[in-house]
Amino acid sequence: MISVHYGEIALKNRNRHLFIKDLLYSLLYVTGGHPKDIGGRIILDEGDISFLSLVPGVSWYGDTFLFKEINEVEAFLLSKGKKFDIEVRRIDKSLPFTSLDVKKKLLYLTDKNGERARIEIFKDKILVTLNIKKGIGGLPINKNNKILHLFSGGVDSTLAAFELMKRGANVDLLHVYAVSEDFALKGKIGKIAAFFSNIKPIRLYLAPFDYFYSKFLALDTKYEIVLFKHFLLLLADRFDEYLAISNGDSLSQVSSQTLPNIRSVNYGITKPILRPLISFNKEEIIDLSKKLGFYDLTVENYKDCCSIISRNNTTKSNLNKLIELEEKINMKEIVDNTFSRTRMFIFEKGKLKQNY
């Protein structure tokens, strides 16, 4: 039996039950078990916990054992042949003893440097949790909080998608491929989508690069990256069911992410544009990606669109100049043609399930 605890959800007062409902749904999907809310924590009686630490909303979890009396708890801990860093919580305040009374009784089994043991005392049962592991916290994914994420497959865009999921967003991915759909699906784009689908069902939209590429080849300009970034946002803006667009921008990390260029590419977009990594240092992004377990996927070799576009780009774009260039190449037609050829692939539980 696994005990799952949440943190921030407990602060939600009258809306708490809605967040718990979302978390129960996520746990059902991720583990395949039968999660039950017993007030302040959730019990899983079975299921696969391989990805439990990455479930948004999970603060911590551990192996839980059920007892009736404190004497049974004492005998259980004594049988382990070691001491524990014991934490006691008396959930039912009407009981005729305090948490401190229990801690005193178990003092001879206590060592602050030992494994953590959490004892929770209810009216009719006692839960003891060992082998405690930390989750990512945050808020559970709500299926209605739909965000379409511009996804290159790099470490920045991958972590940005995950950071939004951690805040309860139902994130799907939009990737513009330079080679082919098959190349994207069999390469790291498909692999990362499959990884994320262990946490939630993922829609991966694959769009061709060729319409845009054939038009900007005729231009002799330092606005190529800015044009491309604006094209991506205009394309994402065409997906009406999403409430916002997101990407992996980090302020001034590369030329397209300076403030003048961010201002330019935001032009004409009707949806909010979220940039969860805007203040992250590159080292922070890499370190966190390694900790979460997907860094190695993001550094696999893959020919993306940005590798084709010129690296000699302006850092101080002019919005009027951008508009002039987009009129010259008929950006609306490019977006229309690209959108019409975009296909959707659905991943669930680590596998490609459907495509449209």
Short summary:
This protein is of the alpha/beta class and 356 residues long. Helices cover 34% and strands 22% of the residues. α9 links the parallel β11 and β12.
Structure explained in plain terms:
The protein is α/β, with parallel strands linked by helices and 356 residues long. It is 34% helix and 22% strand. The strands form 2 sheets. The protein has a 7-stranded mixed beta sheet. The protein has a 7-stranded mixed beta sheet with strand order 12-11-8-9-10-13-14, sandwiched between helices. It starts with a strand and ends with a strand. 40% of the residues are buried.
Structural class estimated from helices and strands: alpha/beta
Q: How many structural domains can be distinguished in the coordinates? A: 2
Note the gap between the termini.
40 Å
Order of helices and strands: EHEEEHEHEEEHEHHEHHEHEHHHHEE
* Main pleated sheet: 7 strands, mixed
Q: Please state the CA-atom Rg, rounded to the nearest Å.
A: 25 Å
Q: Helical percent range?
A: 25-40%
Poorly predicted regions: none
Strand order within the widest beta sheet: 2-3-1-4-7-6-5
Using brief descriptors, characterize the structure shown.
VC0802-like, 356 residues, 7-stranded mixed beta sheet, alpha/beta, Rossmann fold
